[in-house]
DNA sequence: CACGGGTTTCCTGATT
DNA sequence: AAATCAGGAAACCCGT
């Protein structure tokens, strides 16, 4: 028996933001696990990725994790036994997938991601002059990202991998991936830029882009909280990424090359096997599976003050496959 | 107060 | 043998 009840009472913090659905204490178990996996600093060998791109991980110190979970829930009697029961309940909801035969090993499932509500919120974006701010999630933990800009009219594409680590500004187009002199400008100077002003904020800024330009942003990482709109001034400051580019050079950009002629803005384009459809706006949170692909575009006529934006969840997985090897290489 | 989601507890019965 | 895995049941917590 044991009515261990007792120390249950005040639920202190209640920031302000309308706590989403049911989310006691702000975090669900699977999110808690995810966060540990994402924060090497806070993960003293507690849980380890078995196959990050597949979302497979293993508990190294099951009881320690349980204690940590219990601490978060103000429950000192938490044990792995109990925590694991909760984990098993995730199978049915497909937040976790069963990994049999392997003790202490779990795998994130397809529902270990965002939901429709977040998606809708994500649709909001701001367009200011020629600055295009894409809504992203705060506290996004992007480790690496790949940018590919596509000039539909010229059927060219350029882009390449970069790494993000805290506050850094990165030019998108490095010399290594300039494929066509007439496509989007070179990275350093007036070209598109991905600017990370705060560790917890990611702002995508395009400036001096040409007409009929679309870009693809692949973010490898986990999104740890709700999307938040951000707005920033354009700051042009060439970041020296040459070294980084060379270091991270991968076949990604080549894969992303547009193969199929397509000059119609509204038509789908196919970039190296990735289908960019016109489906409903959607930016997915790919927890346990490393990344989200954002596709955005800009109106031909800037005076319209309207951006042509499309988000396609389908891009996620094909892109995931595409970048699978890159991610592994980068993750070491 | 009722109700539902998300655990938390407990437990019996396998597996490793 | 100890640690886990599997789930069913039911109690809890908490937000609506």
Question: Could you explain how this protein is built, in words?
Answer:
With 332 residues, this protein is an alpha+beta fold. Among the domains are: 29-112, Winged helix-like DNA-binding domain superfamily/Winged helix DNA-binding domain (Arc Repressor Mutant, subunit A); 114-155. It is 22% helix and 24% strand. The protein has helices at residues 29-38, 62-72, 80-93, 116-122, 242-248, 252-255, 313-331, and strands spanning 47-51, 56-59, 96-97, 105-108, 126-128, 131-133, 136-137, 140-151, 156-163, 168-171, 193-196, 203-205, 213-223, 227-228, 269-271, 274-276, 291-297. The strands form 6 sheets. A 4-stranded antiparallel beta sheet has the order 1-2-4-3. A 4-stranded antiparallel beta sheet has the order 9-8-13-17. A hairpin with a 2-residue loop joins strand 5 and strand 6 (131-133). Helix 2 (62-72) packs across helix 3 (80-93). The protein is elongated. 38% of the residues are buried. It is found in: Nucleus. Residues 1-15 have a biased composition (Basic and acidic residues).
